[in-house]
Amino acid sequence: MIGVLSLQGAISEHANALNKLGVENKPILNQADLAGIDGLIIPGGESTAIKKLMTYNQLFPKIKELIQAGLPTFGTCAGMVLLSQPESFNMLKATVVRNGFGRQQQSFEESLHFDALADPFHAIFIRAPYLTDVSADINVLAKINDKAVAVSKDHVLATAFHPELTDDCRLHEYFIDHFVH
Ligand SMILES: NC(=O)CC[C@H](N)C(=O)O
Q1: Is residue 62 pLDDT above 90, yes or no?
Q2: DSSP string for residues in 94-146
Q3: 150 DSSP assignment
Q4: How far apart, in whole angstroms, are the C-alpha atoms of residue 27 and residue 41?
Q5: What is the mean pLDDT of residues 82-99?
Q6: Which of 79, 103, 134, 155 is 20 to 30 A from 128 via CA?
Q7: Distance CA 51, CA 31 (A)
Q8: Where does L-glutamine bind (predicted)?
Q9: Is 162 a catalytic residue?
Q10: Domain total for the chain?
Q11: How far is the CA of 76 from the centre of ligand 1 (A)?
């Protein structure tokens, strides 16, 4: 059972991707929803808003504890921001540059190579962050120039782009197969 943090942002699109893969999922809106999940998706949206809502719903400390204790977690865009920020989940030792590629109008799409995928992944970037000064214990899975846009570390996977906005479920599948199971 995968929990999809459902406070703000691209929520239903992640649930759709999981449904397509036949992976059971449920929305996470409060602490009780966290019971029995084997993995968590933190969607893209606006990281400051998501963090405020997590705090308001008394989810923030509980989710932080679960992620730090090993809950497999996939963060996309704002989710990558929250996984990286020292003041948020502090799971990725790197400098996160929010809106690193510019504002909404500078949104772009790019085909990215992943060693784990046979064909490139068509990635949609919307006010996307990137990581730099990435610590040696982080696997950089995809880069644009010297900017890390997909990374993993232990049980955490993060992309600066929105894999849930295309029909391509391969990164969700990768998360389920390599991080959750
Ligand atoms: N599409 C997104 O998730 C954008 C993330 C946003 N720029 C933030 O920092 O929260």
Answers
A1: yes
A2: SEEETTTT-SGGG-EEEEE--TTSSS-EEEEESS--EEES--TTSEEEEEETT
A3: E
A4: 10
A5: 98
A6: 155
A7: 14
A8: 45-47, 98, 126-127
A9: yes
A10: 1
A11: 9
